[in-house]
Amino acid sequence: MNDMTPPLNLWFDPSKCFIGGHWVTPTGGQTLPIENPSTGETIAQLARGTAADVDAAVAAARGAYRGEWGRTPAFERGRLLMKMSRMVLERADELARLEAIDVGKPLKQAKADAITLARYLEFFGGAADKFMGETIPYQPGYTVYTLRQPHGVTGHILPWNYPMQMVGRSIGAALATGNAAVLKPAEEACLTALAFAAIADEAGLPKGAFNVVPGLGEEVGAALSSHPGVDHISFTGSVAVGMLVQAAAAKNVVPVTLELGGKSPQIVFADADLERALPFLVNGGMQNAGQTCSAASRILVQRQIADEVVARMSERYRALKVGPAMSDFDIGPLVSGRQQQIVEGFLGRIAPGRIAARTKLPADLPPGGHFVAPALVADIAPSHSLARDEIFGPVQVVLPFDSEEEAISIANGTDYGLIAGVWSADGGRQMRLARDIRAGQVFINNYGAGGGVELPFGGVGKSGHGREKGFESLYGFTVVKTVAAWHG
Ligand code: NAD
User: Is the shortest distance between the CB of 155 and ligand 1 below 6 Å?
Assistant: First the structure.
């Protein structure tokens, strides 16, 4: 252990699964190494769950749903979530430290994630007893109303890039609406999910209402997505795995929410307030070292200001500081050697001359860390793979355009449709672009990389379907039952 890998001080055992309110050794007795991506060191061992552990977790969730948890009134569920929210806030520094060591996220960004997790729990906790069905005017002699009921057992398969935020938005909404949840976190990012399980248990969440089975995607994830005892799946991750999850769930006719990747544009018109836009243009792409589904990986700029925007973004790139997560600079390492290779592979597809600006890596970085110097790529065709495919690293491309029509056509020219930003002083143009851009969220004269917990979020096209976050999320985690009573 050294400065970059301080002692973990864990209050739970990551080599165990959390099933039915108990910490249990995975049935195969195996573990996976947990790596600190800032140094490449192995820092602990993670439970390698199995299909049998998924069976046990689903059975525990079903038991909770039929038992104490299923009978817990909505306002009590809300109170429990609020209590968990306060406990997460109290431990925000510890959680941030764990996340920084586990996934390489700079400390301040990790702390912001912990605070967002608390905010999700607060938001969904507050919504739990305010979400209701309707009465429907029907024929004389009838009273008709709808019940909004939980699915039952929900499965959650999550990625590694915003582990705490994903838990908040997915598990928070599922529990608020009365489901019992089974979570499979990403193998690269399990520590805070398990820490949260310990917090939920301490808060008094009925046993079995929330279960965590860490492990590999092709083992635990595949078992969960094909499990006949699961009533709903919430998947956040890549398109390729999302397709597998949807196909597996289809065999049991189980509904699936898919929150997948993106290639999100920020579109800058010549009349934009550049002073305000510039930090959003760069941070929207560089936050979390670009490992953000809603990263602004494409900057579309009206041609007459393209050179100026590239020059001013380049200045900011040169000022970025890269370093180990515990140093808390702007950019940490990528999560794994695999992710580093993917990003470097993309950059290898272009001539170095096309890189308008490259942040300098400090000479004293730990040799085993997975660092990639941020790169701003200009002078590239919209059809190039760097401008179409999700890179998931600190790389942005600048694409010039002439007219509003061309901007829309380039913006809509990928398989994805997650979010977009529009920078212009023209109100009519703002409204036209908000209407015509294929995306689940459009930000006008700001850019939220997913935005606040209150804002419904999700994609179109290969970015997925269904919505999480905001009140809208509660619809996805419930089913409507219509009751038609004839009384004469
Ligand atoms: P991934 O698809 O590789 O993994 C996501 C999860 O799926 C992990 O828990 C993994 O173990 C599991 N998995 C892998 N194989 C599986 C299988 N055969 N069956 C079931 N589960 C399996 O994605 P990742 O690399 O962890 O995350 C990066 C991707 O996630 C990017 O594409 C990013 O855009 C996307 N993402 C989307 C959002 C969103 O809200 N739209 C948010 C964050 C990340």
Answer: no
Which of 35, 259, 390, 468 is an active site residue?
Answer: 259
Rounded to an integer, the average pLDDT of 461-485 is: 98
- Find out whether the beta carbon of 163 lies less than 6 Å from any atom of ligand 1: no
Same domain membership, residue 283 and residue 243: no
In the chain, how many domains are there?
A: 2
Same domain, 243 and 273: no
Segments forming the whole domain that contains residue 306? 265-453
CA-nearest residue, atom 28 of ligand 1: 237
Does the pLDDT at position 54 exceed 70?
A: yes
293 annotated active-site: yes
Return the CATH number at 299: 3.40.309.10
pTM assigned to the model: 0.97
Residues in Cβ contact with 375 at an 8 Å cutoff, skipping those fewer than 6 apart: 317, 347, 355, 357, 358, 359, 394, 395, 396
Q: Is 186 in the pocket of ligand 1 (CB under 6 A)?
A: yes
Q: Helix H segments across 3-161?
A: 51-66, 68-71, 74-90, 92-103, 107-127
Q: Are residues 325 and 382 in the same domain?
A: yes
What is the predicted pLDDT for the residue at 1? 46
Q: pLDDT tens digits, residue range 105-114?
A: 999 999 999 9
